[in-house]
Structures are given as C-alpha cells and as structure tokens.
Amino acid sequence: MSAAGQHPLGIDELLEQARAGYQRVAAHEAYEAARTGDALLVDIRYAALRERDGVIPGALVIERNELEWRLDPQGSHKAPEATDHDLRVIVICNEGYASSLAAVSLHQLGLHRATDLVGGFQAWKAAGLPVTP
Known about the structure:
Blueprint: H1 11-19, H2 27-35, E1 40-43, H3 47-53, E2 60-61, H4 67-71, E3 89-92, H5 98-108, E4 115-116, H6 120-126
C-alpha cells in the first residue's frame, strides 16, 4: 500500500482515469480541427519514429520531455503557438497511450481544451490522412 493507504494504480487504470477527464478525438476529427484552425496538432513522438514513419504536415513537433515547458502560455520557454489557456491542443504520440497522459498534464497547466488522438499517429496514417516522409 502507498503512504495514503491506497493500492498503487496500474497503467491501465491510470489511463482509464486520465481519459475519463476529457473527450478524445478520432483521426478525421483531428484533421478537420487542424484544417479549420480550431486546433493545434502536437506530435510528441521521438525523432526515430518521425524519421521512420514521417510527420503530419503542419503539426508542431515537441518531444514529450519538453511538452509542458513549450506549451505553458505563462512559461519562459513557450513556443510561439502557446498563445493562451484556451488553445485547443490535440496531442499525438505513436499509438495513443503516452498522448493521453500528456493531455492530462496539459490540463493541469490550465490548457482545459487539451485532448489526444485515439490510436495516435498510426491511426492517422491508417486513415489515409496526409503524411510527409
């Protein structure tokens, strides 16, 4: 038992709890949101995966370990796209797992519209959406 007297969560339960706090989006919904300017796509995959599989045109690439620093609208290391807390961010990892935890972290920073892509980059690619080698 943990210090709080509760059993530690397993990753599956942690993901379930994380995803219960916001509405995830499917590939075509993410594409439309980005195309219309309603959302910023953020690719958190590491370089080897981007080199292997390509990138989503127009997506902002921020590796996972820099995400919070680059998207905090109040942060000193913020990306130019991190304009305010109302920014809709759709986080994309390889298969849609790490992005769920990342979205929760962005919620904790006040980015209340943050979400992630169900199935990640692989779902985007499988849907036939644009990918640049």
